[in-house]
Design brief:
Number of helices: 4
Radius of gyration: 37 Å
Shape: elongated
Helix content: over 70%
Distance between the termini: 78 Å
Structural class: mainly alpha
């Protein structure tokens, strides 16, 4: 097991970091090129996420509208056939359609 003196000696033996070791990074940060690249990358990522969510939302709305249109067409077909007398419905069938919401 180490004692505190050995640990202090190891810490003192570590060479110091040169002062100019991070100067190129500091220069890029102060120059603005790194900040600009980060901001552009974040903005592009945000735009891609917003675009993907918009596409999913539009797709879901179209699916809902298509389902609603299909239901309306089915209701209109039923009304047309009923008015034209193409199909005969018993009183119980008509009552069931009104009670259940016309075939839902």
């Amino acid at each position: 097991m180490r004692n505190d003196n050995d640990l202090q000696k190891e810490l003192l033996d570590v060479p110091p970091v040169p002062a100019d070791a991070f100067s190129h990074i500091e220069h890029r940060i102060y120059n603005g090129s790194l900040k600009r690249k980060v901001v552009i990358s974040l903005a592009a990522s945000l735009l891609m996420v917003v675009g993907a969510l918009t596409i999913v939302n539009v797709h879901n709305q179209q699916a809902e509208q298509t389902a609603l249109a299909d239901e309306i067409i089915e209701e209109l077909d039923f009304a047309r056939s009923f008015i034209n007398g193409d199909e005969t419905y018993q009183d119980n069938d008509i009552l069931a359609l009104f009670v259940t919401g016309a075939g839902e």
